[in-house]
Write a structure and sequence with these properties.
With 236 residues, this protein is an alpha+beta fold. The chain contains four helices and 16 strands. The N and C termini lie far apart (124 Å).
Length: 236
Amino acid sequence: MSMRDATSRERRNAPKTAWLTENIGFKALSVLFAVLLWYMVNFTGSAEVVVSAPVKFEKIPENYDLLWESANSVSITLSGQKRVIKSLAPDAVSVAVDLSRAKPGESFHQVATGNLILPPDVQTLKITPNVIRVHLEEIISRKLAVRPNIVGEPRKGWAVAGVDLTPESVIVSGVKRFIVGEHEIHTEPINIDGISRDTTFTVKLDTAGGGYRLTADKASVTVRVKPRAGQAVKRY
């Protein structure tokens, strides 16, 4: 038997796990290199991400209200380790705009790094928009008379004799420009079609488009009817 045949037979008869110990130094070095590469990618490699952050308007002066704003969110480009960037929660970033020194009317507010609420180990590269325009209005209170909005007709042969309502007036609070010229507030429509006896309705007050705050948002309206005696139906 030749030397080559003997060596081949030894290799065939060697344990199947012998490959684990062959070139062990080279294999250990390969594993170490792979671990280092993973560490470099995940812990030292940097990444960028663009997030949309909600804007919180804080410290609005007393007796003033935020009528509108040019933006309620901003786009922020962030940079940091890939591990940190990948693990960012959707609500991890927000913007706080301090309105404590804002005056009535229109004002402009810079959005900078100091306005941002960020997780640690994250840097800000860009903010868009970096200026937000807001409009504050004075809030006033005023007493308004309640007026029932009656639609329809009583049963044939009957007429409206009168209307009683509670409350007869409410205190309304809201933006000055919306209230200053108002003297009354109406109820939502009250349909009296076909009634032939005194009927009480509970209805909401109509604040559509007003942005009001009310001391009461409903009214109790009693519509009194009587047999018609030739007179026209009285309107309210």
